[in-house]
Design a protein that fits this description.
Layout (H helix, E strand, L loop, with lengths): L1 E4 L5 H16 L13 H4 L2 H9 L7 E8 L2 E10 L4 E9 L8 H13 L3 E7 L3 H9 L3 E2 L8 E4 L10 E8 L5
Parallel strand pairs: 4-5
Antiparallel strand pairs: 1-2, 2-3, 3-4, 5-8, 6-8, 7-8
């Protein structure tokens, strides 16, 4: 396994990785989030492609690392430095077939190093309970300073009318060791 910085040349594989992981992690028929909500067609839409491209840049305020095995992307993480006190963790995914092998932990270590002495913030679908449990184990907490007491609803333009997913804001307070 190799961890490296992303480039725009990774867009096709990055799209495939995120489409696969979104479909596996976020599909929940009980709230209307069917697999179609995370289809290849939706991930190929212009809006989604622009969003994904924005995560593939690397500069002094943002870094995206990718994990590849045999030139196939199996993991990703993006950190955006928001200001001197806060960094946002986003685009953090490990392909379902590669979870539980330490890939995510290694990517997370890269994110922590780049974030430096900043608090980390993220948002996540509330029904993704296994990932929320992992974050809590790592010291993350509900961030009640954002949204409606830490919660908000997300609706992608490509989703059917009325379909929305409850999301939560989380924060990890920086603590020096």
């Amino acid at each position: 396994m190799k961890i490296r910085l992303a480039t725009l040349n990774d867009l096709e594989q990055y799209t495939n990785l995120l489409q696969t992981t979104y479909e596996a992690a976020y599909t929940d028929n009980s709230i209307g989030l069917t697999a179609d909500c995370f289809s290849k067609e939706i991930f190929a839409s212009e809006d989604t492609q622009q969003y994904l491209k924005s995560h593939l840049k690397n500069d002094k305020k943002q870094k995206t690392w990718l994990t590849e095995k045999n030139k196939y992307l199996v993991g990703s993480i993006t950190v955006i430095l928001k200001n001197e006190k806060e960094a946002e963790l986003t685009g953090y995914y490990v392909h379902p077939n590669y979870q539980g092998r330490g890939i995510g932990k290694k990517l997370y270590e890269k994110a922590l190093q780049f974030a430096g002495n900043r608090d980390l913030v993220l948002d996540i679908y509330a029904h993704n309970t296994s990932t929320i449990k992992m974050y809590k184990k790592w010291g993350w907490k509900l961030d009640t300073t954002r949204g409606g007491n830490g919660y908000f609803y997300r609706h992608w333009p490509e989703w059917p009318d009325g379909v929305q997913a409850k999301c939560i804001y989380m924060r990890k307070i920086y603590q020096s060791d």
